[in-house]
Amino acid sequence: MQSELDLRRALCDHARKMRVAGINQGKSGNLSVRIDGGFLVTPSGLDYDAMEPEDIVAMVSGQSPLGPRAPSSEWRLHRDIYARYGEAGAIVHAHAMFATTLSCLDRMIPAFHYMVAVAGGPDIRCAPYATFGTQQLSDAVVGALADRRACLMSHHGMIAFSETLAAAFALAVEVETLSAMYWRALQIGEPSLLPETEMAVVLESFKSYGKG
């Protein structure tokens, strides 16, 4: 089991990896991991290259944010996803280029490719728009994540969660890859979609994929 210091270091490392992986730019986006009684989240408005473990903010139920910095403006998103989805151990929110482009068109990602199932369902929804940092945005995103592990956020970006930070990060990268493929397909025309029966087969297969 990782110590809190290890989790703080991992958040700093993955925050910097977002730019390298091409899923985020500048100071945008945020990440968190669940801890006993709450979660650790990246701070608001701090350059990721300058971020240190002590800059990470602890959000513990019934207490004020713990640390020298203010939490990300999207802390409600993280709080409410952890409260609603017990399987969520870490969350990655990013302003990925292709995912955000699709979200600005209020487009979901349909079953154009079987890997869409990696997010937990036959499609990847786009949550309705609401102002950043608001309860309305959190409510919209939590709803769009029903039976899913990732969604786009209208005119905003994307969000993904999983059991670990590494897995949530990998899922965010996959969602951006799918967004890029779908966007490119749309330049030629509307791609054909896999039938629901096939996506059900894929979803069932994914339950045991990579587990020996």
Description:
This protein has 212 residues and is of the alpha+beta class. The chain is built from six helices and seven strands. The chain has helices spanning 4-21, 75-84, 97-103, 135-144, 165-186, 196-206, and strands at 30-35, 38-41, 57-60, 90-94, 126-127, 150-153, 157-162. Strand 6 (150-153) and strand 7 (157-162) form a beta hairpin. The longest helix has 22 residues, at 165-186. The radius of gyration is 17 Å and the shape is globular. The two termini are 23 Å apart. The relative contact order is 0.15. The model has no long low-confidence stretch (mean pLDDT 95).
Mean pLDDT: 95
Instruction: Trace the largest sheet across and list its strands.
Output: 3-2-1-4-7-6-5
First-to-last CA distance: 23 Å
Uncertain runs: none
* Envelope shape: globular
Radius of gyration from CA coordinates: 17 Å
Range of helix content: 25-40%
Query: Quaternary state, please?
Result: single chain
Tally of helical segments: 6
What pattern of helices and strands is seen along the backbone? HEEEHEHEHEEHH
How many beta strands in the DSSP annotation? 7
Strand content bin: 5-15%
Topology:
Layout: H1 4-21, E1 30-35, E2 38-41, E3 57-60, H2 75-84, E4 90-94, H3 97-103, E5 126-127, H4 135-144, E6 150-153, E7 157-162, H5 165-186, H6 196-206
Parallel strand pairs: 5-6
Antiparallel strand pairs: 1-2, 1-4, 2-3, 4-7, 6-7
Helix pairs in contact: 1-5, 2-4, 3-5
Quick take:
The chain is built from six helices and seven strands. The chain has helices at residues 4-21, 75-84, 97-103, 135-144, 165-186, 196-206; strands at 30-35, 38-41, 57-60, 90-94, 126-127, 150-153, 157-162.
